Automatic annotation (TrEMBL):
Residues 156-354 form the Calcineurin-like phosphoesterase domain. It comes from Artemisia annua (Sweet wormwood). Keywords: Glycoprotein, Hydrolase, Iron, Metal-binding, Signal, Zinc. One of its GO terms (molecular function) is metal ion binding. The lineage of its organism: Eukaryota, Viridiplantae, Streptophyta, Embryophyta, Tracheophyta. Belongs to the metallophosphoesterase superfamily. Purple acid phosphatase family. Its cofactor is Zn(2+); Cu(2+); Mn(2+); Fe cation. Gene3D superfamilies: 3.60.21.10, Purple acid phosphatase-like, N-terminal. This is Purple acid phosphatase. Pfam families: Metallophos, Metallophos_C, Pur_ac_phosph_N. Its EC number is 3.1.3.2.
Amino acid sequence: MGLYVCFFVVFLMLYHGPCINGGITSSFVRKEEKSIDMPFHSDVFSHPPGYNAPQQVHITQGDHVGRAVIVSWVTQDEPGSSTVVYWAEKNNQKFKATGRTTTYKYYNYTSGFIHHCNIMNLEFDTKYHYQLGTGQTTRRFWFMTPPPVGPDVPYTFGLMGDLGQTYDSNVTLTHYEMNPVKGQAVLFVGDLSYADYYKFHDNSRWDSWGRFAERSTAYQPWIWTAGNHELDFEPSIGETKPFKPFLHRYRVPYKASGSTEPLWYSIKRASAYIIVLSSYSAFGMYTPQYQWLLEELPKVNRSETPWLIVLMHSPWYNSNSYHYMEGETMRVMFEPWFVEHKVDLVFAGHVHSYERSERVSNIAYNIVNGECSPVKNLSAPVYITIGDGGNIEGLASIMTEPQPKYSAYREASFGHATLEIKNRTHAYYSWHRNSDGYAVRADSVMFTNRHWHPMDDSTSKTE
Ligand SMILES: *[C@@H]1O[C@H](CO)[C@@H](O)[C@H](O)[C@H]1NC(C)=O
Ligand SMILES: *[C@@H]1O[C@H](CO)[C@@H](O)[C@H](O)[C@H]1NC(C)=O
Ligand SMILES: *[C@@H]1O[C@H](CO)[C@@H](O)[C@H](O)[C@H]1NC(C)=O
Ligand SMILES: *[C@@H]1O[C@H](CO)[C@@H](O)[C@H](O)[C@H]1NC(C)=O
Ligand SMILES: *[C@@H]1O[C@H](CO)[C@@H](O)[C@H](O)[C@H]1NC(C)=O
Ligand SMILES: [Fe+2]
């Protein structure tokens, strides 16, 4: 009953107060075109030449602090070698690490041989080359390890979500690569291949996505979050193990943060502490994810990593009609902790549009007190929806009206974002829309750190 009264109150407020109007609903109009998947014969999906050549190469952080890298790749014809040969550019001394191989079946699809190799004890802030495969089909790549973890270490993250493999996805990735703001690692908020869009979840679309993304994922770590399109749960064809293709293909260093499942974990990288949550795993009280997060948040030492960032798939503050309120259950569980621990930024995807919130919280409600509207709270995070990677489902362009007060900027366009951490107090954030030139920042804010410099960094005019 209380809840109904509450909805009614919200309804009245929405329809009577001009003061409730929020920030900017961008007037930019993107031309309406369907997003279609690139066909298998597209250039971006080409197989590397040669028998059993390593393909779909991707790397991610392999430990808690950034001195390890997990290298993953697929060989299609036979297991081949699971060894990575690697060397620091500055001294050329070669090392070897050998990983493990796995395969899986999905309905009538059988995967290639999926290799995962964790290279450990790397030096910080060092360029490494690495080589996979044997003989004629050897392939060489490189990556940079991050600087040692520390409070004033500048570092730039790229942000993408819901990428898929359409022509628009390719434009998003190209804009990220061509952006003069050079991302050093990608925080990816879930929904990778959209293979589940196809009949029987044609897992060859997982393979083609791996080949498409390789031009970035082989050279810089992508920090993975699981989305709903990673579930691949399809009992009608006997596929009852959620996340099967994703978990076989993408590995994360979850044990290093005391997690018991790869779907939620944390890493430190430079001056940031990144917590990854799973919107599609249990998070109610007493569940493993709940228990882990409860113990995890107090471990964050802001003197070491000032920037506390959370990634999840389903957004908590979303004023698009698409997926409206889907993130509500998790918000109810965890939002008080985020405010208490002064999380700086929360990035989510899922909604195929862009939105940035002000610093608000909605934690006062207790069923009977009627306090059920978001209020400005400078201890609260800014929530950013960056699910605008350009996948086959197209744009989510219908917004709830009027724009709620908590919403600072929203726009239905494809794009990506960058977060340039400058030092412990300042981080410059920008959203870049695909329709603009590479250097254009369509929405930018200088965020100030909630622990070290908790100023009012809001951008809407609030009375
Ligand atoms: C899987 O089954 C579908 C439908 O029967 C068929 O079109 C497809 O070619 C099969 N794929 C494989 C790899 O056998
Ligand atoms: C994808 O983008 C790259 C880089 O801009 C370009 O070379 C390639 O031709 C594009 N492929 C497709 C299928 O659009
Ligand atoms: C937090 O990190 C700082 C800087 O590394 C260190 O001096 C301090 O001991 C740490 N605090 C705790 C409680 O571990
Ligand atoms: C912001 O949240 C904190 C932590 O829960 C709380 O103490 C404070 O009263 C809140 N401020 C407002 C304006 O609600
Ligand atoms: C931190 O970075 C901001 C933005 O670049 C700059 O204005 C500020 O002076 C820096 N703080 C320190 C202590 O260097
Ligand atoms: Fe999604």
